[in-house]
Every structure is written in C-alpha cells, then in structure tokens.
Amino acid sequence: MHSNHLLLEEPIRMASILEPSKANFFPAMTKIVGTLGPKSRSVEAISACLKAGMSVARFDFSWGDSEYHQETLENLKAAIKATKKLCAVMLDTVGAELQVVNKRETPISLKEDAIVTLTPHQGQEASNEVLPINFGGLAKAVKKGDTIFVGQYLFTGSETTSVWLEVDQVNGDDVVCVVKNSATLAGSMFTLHASQVHIDMPTLTCRDKEVISTWGVQNKIDFISLSYTRHAEDVREAREFLSKLGDLSQTQIFAKIENVEGLTHFDDILKEADGIILSRGNLGIDLPPEKVFLFQKAAVHKCNMAGKPAVVTRVVDSMTDNLRPTRAEATDVANAVLDGTDAILLGAETLRGLYPVETISTVGKICAEAGKVFNQDLYFKKTVKFVGEPMTHLEAIASSAVRAAIKVKASVIICFTSSGRAARLIAKYRPTMPVLSVVIPRLKTNQLKWSFTGAFEARQSLIVRGLFPMLADPRHPAESNNATNESVLKVALDHGKASGVIKSHDRVVVCQKVGDASVVKIIELED
Predict the structure, then answer these.
(1) Cα 176 vs. chain centroid, distance in angstroms?
(2) Which helix (H) or strand (E) holds 256?
(3) Are 39 and 356 in contact (CB under 8 A)?
(4) Helices 289-306 and 376-387 meet at what angle, rounded to 10?
(5) How far apart are CA 184 and CA 110, in angstroms?
(6) Residue 16 burial (CB < 10 Å; 0-12/13-18/19+)?
(7) Fewer beta carbons within 10 Å, N or C terminal of the chain?
(8) Which of 260, 264, 237 is nearest to 93 (CA)?
(9) pTM of the predicted model, to two decimals?
(10) How many whole angstroms separate alpha carbon 15 and alpha carbon 23?
(11) What is the four-CA torsion angle of 142, 197, 146, 207, rounded to 10 degrees?
C-alpha cells in the first residue's frame, strides 16, 4: 500500500503536541461538504456552517421535495452574502436506492429471530410484520441466505437504529426475512441495502432527471453526486443528459461508489467522472469490515494520481448526537487526510445532527492538524514518478510551480486560470501552501446575448484540496504595466494580505500565461 505519508520530525517533543494551534484564515487545506437539512437550513445556521469551514453545500434528494430544498438554497444564498464566503452547490441524486416507506411515521420495533416480510405493495402499512418497499424486483434479485440491511438515513452502524435481515424465502413478489438483531426504526423513510446483490434499477432515475432539469437548471448547480454509480456508462449517460441542459453542461459529475459493482469497475468510472465520492456507509456493508480501509487507500491514491478530487463520507457518525467524536473517528478523519483525501462529506451529522456547526469545526481542526504532518516531499516524488516523462506542457508547469514554491518557502501560489485546469493540476502535487486560484472570466455569446464564464470554475475548485478561488474583474488584464490600470495580480496579492496569508517580505510564486507562453515567477514582497 502507499503508506509512509506521515512526516513527524524526530525527535518530537511530546509536550509540543499540547501547544494550541495558530488561527488561520483558511481553516484547513482539506475541504468540508455539509449536507443541509432540518438542523442546518436557517440563514443563521448556514452562516455559522460557512464560518466554521463548509465550502460545499449538499442537497440530498433522497428526501424532501424541490420546494423544501429551494427554501434552503435561498437561505444559503443569503448566508453567502452575509458572510462573504463562497460556497458551491452539490445535488445528490436518489439513484438505484431501495427505500422502505413508512407513511404513518410510527416507530417500528423489530425483535431478534422474528419474521418480517418485504413487499412491493406500498399500499400496506409498515409494521413489525410487513415493510413496504419502492422496488418490485427484489424477489427476483435475492435468494435464501442473502443479507439485507435497513436503517434510517443509510446506516449508522448502531445496532439499535439499523436492522440486519437474512432472506428466509421468496414468496411471489414478497421476500420473507429473519430479523438478526433487535432494533427500532423511526421516521418516514428508511434505506434498504441488499449486500452484494445486483439491483436492476437505472442509476439516473426518472425522478432524478426531473429534479436536475428543473431545480438543477434553475440553480445552475456546480456538482452532481451520482448515487450508486456502478459502471462508466452510468457517468457517460449522465453527462450526455447534462449536455442538453444549457449551463449544466459545465456541471461536474462525482461518481458515488457505494457497492461491490462500483468497486469492480472503479478504474473505468474514474476515467469518466470529474471526481469520486467513497460512500462508506453502503460500502462498509457490501465489503467485509477488514477490507474497507484497503479500498479507501487504493481508491484515494488512484484519484490523487489522476488529479481528480476524492471525497470520503461517514467519518464522525457519533457527532449526530454527541458534541465530541470518538477517538476512532478523530483518528479516521486524520488518516483520510494523510491518505490524500480532498474533502470530507458530512451527511446525517449536519443534516439532522444536534451539532452541525461544531461538527464542521471539529472536523476542520482535525484536518488542519493532519495536514501539518502530511509528507509532501514523498508525495511529490511519487506523483512525478507516476506521471513519467515526457510530461505534458501543463503538467510540467504545475509541478515546477510547486517545486519552486517549496524551495523558496513561498507563503502562497497564485495561479491565473480561465478553465480551472491549471490550478487543479498545481493542487494535484499537494503543495504545503494554499493555492489562490484567480479565475479570469471569459466573454461568450449565444448570438442573442453576451455573458461571462468563470463563476462555475471558481466554485468548482471549492472541493479540491488546497485550492481557494477568487473571481477576477474582467476589466483588469492578467498583468498590466499601466499604473492607472490596477492589475489582477495586485488584487490577488491584496486579497492574500487582507486574509493574513501573505505578509511583508514573503515570497509568492505566480503561475500565469504571457502571450502563448506559460510562466512561473517568484515575487518577493516589500514592506
């Protein structure tokens, strides 16, 4: 495995571990995706989440209608305006998700060794004897001895809120199961997962397409989290669908790997997707527990080498109800950062958890501490070796910018970009300092009106480790010798100074295009 990414200077004074960390304008290089819901949808709550370090807001369409999510999104816009902090929007599709429908929302208590029937007849009331589901083909997909898990908002891992069923027999369209542990299911909807069983449902359902083509188009969403991605073709179909929806042709697709099928076709999926989400809730059930870490490390490494963001989920489940994470969870977050993860995705913790702001803050602090001991030198050498020679023009410029920044101990790298690709390539080499991605808007026309591009590209860097975007004023050239015309570089430097990232006598590495040439230069700031 690709271990040894930890850098701890020897000998380390153990007492130094207790020294308080210095406050930083950027809470952590690793980004945080927060799921907005009942406990985190007011303007005040979202503002606090943004200040705590959330840079991407996830809208989960497994529950709630478009009107509900639109209200939340309007609150997000108000919070962004109030805090002056950028935030991207991610739409999470339902996909091939099996659900148990509990219309009356009464708690259902299931006892160990009892019999319960899963039925596609949704007109029946949910009880401790019958659980109606949203899929008519389960009886054809499973066999005696197969394992099925049912829980609220995926699986907490707690044996009191999720239940493990074993298929006893198939009776027509019904699946008769034996309950393997006592549990109480509460709420209107529970997710059902049949372990290592192929479910014949489309990855992008009719409802998903409707939501994307209405709510998604209306709000020009930055990312789609493609739930239950199982094949590269799933991503291609989604991209073709988005290409017909105007501005959404720029929306990035993050393939959500949730089962063994997705794992088996991982390499092909990675080639097609813009990023990967490792959905460890379902993966932790589909895979033996001892194999989960192995897949995580291998998948994150592949994403890193491809220069595509890797997002890890289900890290601090216990903070849904508690103010502090467990020791194992705190270590898990740090290990995800050391593995090379770009972002941590919080689900139930922020959606319905009691402490959404504290959770984001805690995860951010752990990420920041782990980032300090990330072995960048070793990572850089491995990445350069993996890329090989001859490098592409952009790859050579990006790696040179990072190497120069580390050699001169630069406080920040400033990268001018219009598509965002150059900045993402610099981030691929995991510099130890922040990368300020200055997005230069481009003028485009559809023969009816003129418009500027750049907002999508700026927001989409909010999920990439170490990238911090800034949208340039299109009236300012990338660099100007004219004293009366303020250059974008000066604006970027002023932004860095105001945020405390750049100080007097600091060195800054700048990566930009001058004519047809790409230039890396080092600037030493005066008083």
Answers:
(1) 37
(2) strand 252-257
(3) yes
(4) 70
(5) 6
(6) exposed
(7) C
(8) 237
(9) 0.90
(10) 19
(11) -70
